[in-house]
Design a protein that fits this description.
- By secondary structure, this protein is of the alpha/beta class.
- It has 2 domains: 41 residues; 119 residues, Glutaredoxin.
- 31% of the residues lie in helices and 21% in strands.
- The chain contains 4 helices and 7 strands; from the N terminus they run αβαβαββαβββ.
- Strands 2-1-3-4-5-6-7 form a 7-stranded mixed β-sheet, with helices on one face.
- The chain is globular.
C-alpha cells in the first residue's frame, strides 16, 4: 500500500494517524449532538417548540351556555393547539371568586390552565407565553369584551390591554394589543 501524500493528510497529523485527541473530539461531538437532539425532542413533546405550542395543555373554560363569543374564543384556543374542555354554567361569578379574580377584571368567561386563571378574551399566544415564562401571578385578564379581542373579532382593531394580576389584586399590563 502506498503511503498517503501530505496533501491527503489532515493538518497536524504527519503520518495520517488521527491521534489521541481525534477520538475524544468525535465522542464530544456525537455526545453534544445527542444532548441537543434529546432536548429538542423533549421540548417538542411538551409543546414548547413547534407549530402547536400548547398541544399538551388542557384549558378548562367556564361560560354561560348562551354566550357565542365565548365559543369563538374556545375555537381560537383550539386552533392554537390547546385541548379545551367547556363547562356551561348558569352563574360564572362563583368560579371567578373561588379563583381569586379581583373586582373590575371580569369578562364573560373564566378559564383555568395549569394553575393560572385566564379571564376573558386573552389571546392564545399570551396564554402560551405565560405558561412558558411561569410568572408569579394568579393569571391574565382582558376586562370587558374589547371588540378586536380573539373571539370578538371585530375588524376595527380597537386597542386593548391584557392585564396580569396577583393575589393582592394588583394589576400590571402584560401586553398591549
Amino acid at each position: 500500500m502506498k503511503p498517503p501524500l501530505s496533501r491527503d493528510l489532515p493538518p497536524g497529523e504527519p503520518d495520517g494517524n488521527p491521534g489521541p485527541k481525534a477520538g475524544r473530539r468525535r465522542t464530544l461531538v456525537v455526545l453534544g449532538a445527542g444532548i441537543v437532539a434529546a432536548g429538542a425532542a423533549a421540548a417538542w413533546g411538551t409543546g414548547l417548540i413547534g407549530g402547536n405550542a400548547a398541544k399538551a395543555t388542557e384549558v378548562v373554560v367556564y361560560k354561560s351556555p348562551a354566550c357565542g363569543c365565548c365559543g369563538e374564543w374556545v375555537k381560537h384556543l383550539e386552533r392554537s393547539g390547546f385541548d379545551v374542555s367547556v363547562h356551561n354554567v348558569d352563574d360564572v361569578i362563583p368560579i371567578k371568586e373561588a379563583n381569586g379574580l379581583p373586582d373590575g377584571l371580569e369578562s364573560c368567561h373564566t378559564a383555568l390552565v395549569d394553575g393560572y386563571v385566564v379571564e376573558g378574551h386573552v389571546p392564545a399566544d399570551l396564554v402560551m407565553r405565560m405558561l412558558r415564562e411561569r410568572p408569579a401571578i394568579v393569571g391574565l385578564a382582558v376586562p370587558g369584551m374589547p371588540a378586536s379581542a380573539p373571539g370578538m373579532d371585530d375588524p376595527s382593531k380597537e386597542p386593548y390591554d391584557v392585564l396580569a394580576f396577583d393575589k393582592q389584586g394588583k394589576t400590571t399590563v402584560y401586553a398591549r394589543r
